[in-house]
Amino acid sequence: RNPSNRLPPGSLGIPIIGQSLGLLWAMRTNTGEQWINNKIKKFGPISKLTLFGNPTVFLTGPVANKFIFSSTDSLALQQPQSMCRIIGRRNILELIGKDHKRVRGAISYFLKPEALRKYVFKIDQEIRHHLRTNWSDHNQVKILPSMKSLTFNVICSTIFGIERGAREILVQDFAKMMTGMWSVPVNLPFTNFNQSLKASSRIRKELTKVIEEKRRALKLGERSSDEDLITYLLSLGSDNGETLTEEEILDNAVLLMVAGHDTTAIVLTFLVRHLANDPITYAKILNEHEEIAKIKAPEEALTWDDLLKMKFTWRVAQEIMRTIPPVFGGFRRVIKDVEFGGYLIPKGWQVFWNASVTHMDESIFKEPEKFDPSRFEKQSEIPPYCFIAFGAGPRICPGYEFAKAETLVAVHYMVTRFKWSLCCKDNTFVRDPNPSPKQGLPVSIEVKASL
Ligand code: HEM
Q: Quick check: ipTM above 0.95?
């Protein structure tokens, strides 16, 4: 057959622009899922279109997910150009093959349960401090910005060992850097992209100082290699080819700050919103946490073993992520011609995956519209590549356990020490590209017990 006849159905639309504006508009108006479903109705689960300048094949369903997440020899992860320039070209998302494995291995070491156990105390301290200073004396709190600040501080403290005073310099620049992450990469004064690049360069300067100080302390034996991720990365031996270059350490430190804080903040924000609207789930969660709090002194920090008891809470968080995936979808670059479902996907194109379509498939999740945390009671019954909030395959999110620990500790202190109600009953949200409730979700706060 003529190769062009083997391309998936659909239309590439106007060159370069294609259907990008339609998708962006749909995401902004919270109809992204509908936009995608219309496409599936019209062309089926495999179709072509043009997104963000590139001819693209959109694939959906567990078999397609497996193909996208596992075909590392024909597909490479693709981020918007703006993101690569802001975070740095040696960040893990840009790496493939041996380089990806090496950097992922080093980062994952710090995010595994064995290492995380040690940090529950630090996570606990940071979250209590945040709630004490930002919730306790306030009648109203905007949840999304509050959760973003909370998760940023947790990452700085646990992963980077950056103390409170030194973090404040980073916080503002970090917010500025995020604004241009998904912008058109035009570097002219006053474009979002330009502001982001400038903020990123200031963050890198600060991080370089942090790295230098840790290198010095490591040399003098004032620090052990497992105290924080940066010190660990600096200590890796060059003899077995494990070392990360200075550029890689810097780029991946920035990447981890980005990847590790927004997503968890979104889960916590939608959890707060859901609990305000669902008294039955709230009562069950509260009960789970009161049982744990009952056997601890008020000042006593949570431990890893306490977190293991918070099973229902994590099921609720997973159901939140099924219904509102923090990451809407993503792209892979096609590095060599490849076939899927009888169609040709040519080299140079990109492949687009989306989590919602699979998460809302009634053949996988019965009555998908219903909020039902019990779906996650038996994880093994959920078929592979069906719950993809954290991705899957060799690039599955290495921060899963970290996000889980952070979410559980935060929920514990929020439900046992505070009560809240929504100030704005409007339940809609926009995707920007991450889901954000209107006005950042303002809630009225009542203190139940001190922290
Ligand atoms: C609820 C919270 C989180 C969600 C929903 C989430 C989601 C995801 C998803 C979907 C991917 C895969 C992207 C793809 O294959 O295209 C990913 C990758 C990644 N995530 Fe997360 N993430 C979360 C928290 C975190 C945290 C806390 C960290 C670190 C502290 C982190 C670090 C990373 C890194 C480094 C990658 C890239 C892995 C690689 O390319 O090998 N994430 N995440």
A: yes
